[in-house]
Amino acid sequence: MKEITISPVTRIEGHAGVKIFLNDQGEVDSAHFQVVELRGFEKFLIGAAIEEAPRITPRICGICPSAHHLAAAKATDQIFGVEPPATGKKLRELLNIGQFVHSHALHFFMLAAPDFILGYDAPVESRNVIGLARQSPELAKKAIAVRKFGQRLTEGVGGKPIHPANAIPGGMSAPLTEGKRAELAGMAKEALEIALEGWDIARTLLDGVDTEIGAVRTGFMGMSKHGLHSTYEGPVAMLGPDGGRIGSFFGEEYPNFIEEYSEDWSYLKFARFKGGDYYRVGPLARLNIVERMGTEHADAALKEYRERFGAVTQAALAYHLARYIEFVASCERAVELLSDPGITASDTRTPVGGVVNRRGVGIIEAPRGTLIHDYTVNEAGIIERCNLIVATCQNNYAIDRGVEDMARRVVENGALTEGAANRIEMIIRAYDPCISCATHAIGRMPLRIECVRRT
Predict the structure, then answer these.
(1) For residue 421, is pLDDT > 80?
(2) CATH code reported for the domain at 83-214+315-350
(3) Domain map (residue ranges) of the chain
(4) Annotated binding site for Fe cation, which residues?
(5) Binding site for Ni(2+): what residues are annotated?
(6) pLDDT tens per residue across span 137-177
(7) For 222-227, which contacts have Cβ atoms below 8 Å and span 24 or more sequence positions?
(8) Residues comprising the binding site for Mg(2+)?
(9) Residues forming the annotated binding site?
C-alpha cells in the first residue's frame, strides 16, 4: 500500500481528507473526500429550552454564526406562532448581509485568489494570503477593510462581532441607533466601492482556466423571492440537472423533497432530492435559480456571468465568480437598507407567549448555501428533537465526485506532486466548505491527501 500525505493545508475551514485508491498500473481507481469529525450539536441541544437555540447554535461556527443564529430564530418564531414586524425582518436581513460580506470577502481574496493570482504551482510557502499581500499589498488592504465592514455590521445589528445574540423569538431584541446606522452606511458605501473595483479582478479570474475540471452534473437548490436573489425569506426552489424547475417548498415541507443519507467513508452526511437526483447549494446554485440579483451592479455582473457560462452552469470553478457577484449584491443591498430611515424604528419584536406549534423549521441562505434548522419541542418548549442540515452536507456528493475527477487528471504513475495535490484541493475550495463548523487558527486546518495502492 502506498500513501502520500499532505498536511497541513490551509484555506479550508475545518479538517478533512482525500483518499485516492490506485490500481496495479498506478492509475486512479477511485477517490473520496473524507470528513472524520463528529458534530454533536443535534444531540446536546436536546433538553435545552427552544428560546436558547438562537443563542447556542452560533457557536457551531466562527465563520458563519449569523446564519445559524437566524435559522434558529426563524424556527422559534414558528414554535411561538409569531411573525416579526417589518423592522425586525429588515434587521435580520441586514445581519445576514454582514455575514455574506465578511465570509465572501474572506474566501475570495484570502482563500481562493492565491491559486489564481499567484499560480497553482507557486511555492506552497507563498501561495497563501501572506504571499498575496506581498505581491498585491493594496488588494490585501482592501480585502481587510471590506471584511472589517462585515464584522462591524454583524456587531452593530447582532450585538456581537462573532456570535451575534440579538435575534430572538419574534424579531430582534434591540433597534439600530441612528448614530450606528450613519456609521455603518458610510462603511457600506466604501465597501461597495472596493467590491466594484475588485470585479475587474474577479471577472478575469478564470480566463484561460479549463472550467470543466471538477464539474459534476447535479440539480440545484436555493432560495429566491419573486425571482430575485434572497438570503432571508422566500420559497426554496429546486432545479433538475437539465436546469428545469422541479418544485419549491417552505419550512417544514423540506422532508417531502430532500433526504439525508450516509456513506461508509465519511462521517459527514450527504443529501439528495427525493427520487435520487443529487443537487448543490450555495452561490452557483442561487445564481442558476434566480432571474435577477435585484441591484444595479450585481445585475450587470450577472449578465456578464451568464454570457460566459449560460443561464445554468455545472462548472464547479464558476462558484468563485458567483460568490463575488453575491458579494457585490450584498454591499449594494447593505447601502439600500442602511439608507432606509425606517431601519432605526423601535418596533423590532412581536411579543411572544407560550408554545403554539410543537415543531419549527427555520430556513435561511448561508454564504455556503441553504441552511435548515428543524426543532421539535414538548409543551413546555424543551427541545426533544433537532436536525441541522448545513450546506457542506448538501454539497458533499459534488465535492466527492469533483475530487475524483481531478485526481484522475493529475495523478501520474502513482505519484502525486505538490502542485497536483493543490489542484485537487482547488476543487474542494471552490465550494468554500465549512467542514467542521468551527473556528480554527491559521495553519491548523489540515487537509490530508492519501494515495493508496490496492493489492
Answers:
(1) yes
(2) 1.10.645.10
(3) 1-36+416-455, 83-214+315-350, 219-314
(4) 64, 437
(5) 61, 64, 434
(6) 888 888 889 999 999 999 999 999 889 999 999 999 999 99
(7) 222/281, 222/282, 222/285, 222/286, 222/288, 222/289, 222/290, 222/365, 222/369, 222/370, 223/286, 223/363, 223/364, 223/365, 223/370, 224/286, 224/289, 224/290, 224/291, 227/290, 227/291, 227/292
(8) 42, 388, 440
(9) 42, 61, 64, 388, 434, 437, 440
